[in-house]
Amino acid sequence: MNDAPRLIDPYARAINYLRVSVTDRCDFRCLYCMSENMTFLPKKELLSLEELDRMCSAFISQGVQKLRITGGEPLVRRGIMDFFTRIGRHLDSGALKELTLTTNGSQLRRFAGDLFSAGMRRVNISLDTLDEKKFAEITRWGRLSQVIDGIDAAQEAGLRVKINVVAVKGTNEDELETLVNWCAERDMDLTFIEVMPMGDMGDLSRNDQYWALKDLRARLAESFTLIDLAENTGGPARYVRLEETGQKVGFITPLSHNFCESCNRVRLTCTGQLYQCLGQEDEADLRKVLRDHPDDDAPLVAAIHAAIARKPKGHDFDYSRQDVSGAMGRHMSHTGG
Ligand code: SAM
Ligand code: SF4
Per residue in 243-291, pLDDT tens? Predict the structure, then answer.
């Protein structure tokens, strides 16, 4: 297998990482992600499981080596295990190096074993608090015990777990140490994410939720010794190791740091639109190309290359202005986080 990158953007960045949202639906309604009365897309708008397979396989044929499945909540999509099982063939062939998932954990008791069998070895599970009441407030519809049980199931199945914590001002500020120690005890890595201005949140103001990770990091440094790690995954995460626990902690700060120069990824929405950048509106309608050519992948591959050739240099998020300049109208659950 020739590992030379095939998708190179105008700024000489090799694109080898695809994130795919497989549904805009979810069994939770997290405050920073969705309003309680979300309107979801009609089913025919979504890529079918077969179309998802065709789409992902086309990217893999062009050198994509890492595939992350997200949503919405990917595990509430009916039949999604069939997709994972089938796409696993690219791991067997060696073309795909890693298949991963970002999930809220609610369905992992049911699916963790099958995910491992499909070739998955790592999952990211989102969990912002260990307090039952706060968990119910943040997720509106979620139950903490169900997610903890999902995390148990993932670890029992042999999946390595990373916990994603969205830092929300006034909500999980007082749980920093508890979350770090809990993850250390369970041998799980941990990443903090800064709230991003995605979608319309109704009455909730973004600026009220915003807790700069610079402050969070300073707070963490009061209790732990932080050792900077040089590691760069091509994404917005920066890592430290905590001397006291030995665990790796990541910080995703897309708003306050510029990570764009090393960007190696693109995002496919559940309706088959390719966003070359999370923070820009430009997109390519790959679903149309795919549906117009049901038996020929060449136009799809050409459209993928044309889209990568338009990948912008970076994004324009900016919280410093009151109107949250650069904010995106679309929801994270549509694009995939
Ligand atoms: N439902 C799955 C989950 O919650 O992990 C996958 C999709 S979710 C959109 C992916 C990640 O995006 C989660 O870690 C979630 O906490 C995060 N997220 C959602 N809305 C966000 C926002 N406005 N700012 C920052 N992170 C956000
Ligand atoms: Fe659902 Fe994930 Fe959004 Fe929460 S963050 S509402 S779990 S998609």
Answer: 999 999 999 986 554 667 788 889 999 999 999 887 677 899 999 999 9
Q: What's phi and psi for 9, nearest 5 deg?
A: -90, 175
Tell me the pLDDT tens digit for each residue of 102-133. Answer: 999 999 999 999 999 999 999 999 999 999 99
Q: Cβ(96) to ligand 1 under 6 A?
A: no
pLDDT at 327 over 90: no
Which DSSP state fits 105? S
Q: Which residues contact 34 (CB under 8 A, 6 or more apart)?
A: 26, 199, 331, 333
Q: How many angstroms separate the Cα of 26 from the Cα of each of 82, 94, 173, 224?
A: 19, 32, 26, 36
Delimit the domains of the chain by residue range: 17-335
Output the CA 180–ligand 1 centroid distance in Å: 19
Neighbours of 78 (CB within 10 A): 10
Lookup result for tokens 């319309």: 200
- Shortest-distance Cα residue to atom 26 of ligand 1: 195
Token digits of residue 194: 């800064």
CATH number listed for the domain at residues 17-335:
3.20.20.70
Residues 6 or more apart in contact with residue 172 via CB below 8 angstroms: 128, 129, 134, 165, 179
Among candidate residues 191, 201, 275, 163, the one with its CA nearest the CA of residue 33? 201
Question: What's the pTM?
Answer: 0.92
Which protein residue's CA is at the shortest distance from atom 12 of ligand 1?
A: 337
Q: What is the pLDDT of residue 276?
A: 84
Ligand 2 centroid to residue 27 C-alpha, Å: 8
Give dist(CA 2, CA 278) in Å, integer: 29
Lookup: tokens for 125: 């599970």
Question: Which of 23, 73, 140 has the most ligand 2 atoms within 8 A of CB, as the residue to mutate?
Answer: 73
| Closest to 319 measured CA to CA, from 220, 230, 209, 245 | 209
